[in-house]
Amino acid sequence: MDDAIEVLHAASLRADEGPQTGADVRLALKTLRFVGVPAEAIRYFWDSCQTENAIGRAQGMTAALNRIKLIREGRLELQPRHRSPPQSTPKQKPPSSR
Predict the structure, then answer these.
(1) pTM of the model
(2) Under 8 Å CB-to-CB from 49, ≥6 apart: which residues?
């Protein structure tokens, strides 16, 4: 798992060279998914790798890598996504003018 993290770190350092969609990145992401990193964290990194803007790509990859590291260290738990129905709030009556 540490090797996969190192591959992603190296890819994030190369972000200014163009999209980072090589076999090394794909294999590292598959490895991390296999050991339990949530799919949405992996997708976030992968989507960031493909961004055309170099600055956005570097920032996105770094943020995604930091998220993966926090998940791996157990310092970030992702909550399951389920949408609760919208809560209706009672409308307040305007103050009466006396």
Answers:
(1) 0.75
(2) 11, 19, 20, 21, 25, 57, 61
Each domain of the chain, given as residue ranges in start order, spans 2-72
Per-residue pLDDT band for 44 (boundaries 50, 70, 90) equals very high
Q: Are 45 and 68 in contact, with CB atoms under 8 Å apart?
A: yes
**80, 74 in Cβ contact below 8 A?**
no
| CA separation, residue 3 to residues 10, 32, 37 (Å) | 10, 10, 14
Rounded to whole angstroms, the Cα distance separating 26 from 87 reads 41
Backbone φ and ψ of 7, nearest 5°: -65, -45
- What is the rounded average pLDDT for all residues in the chain? 86
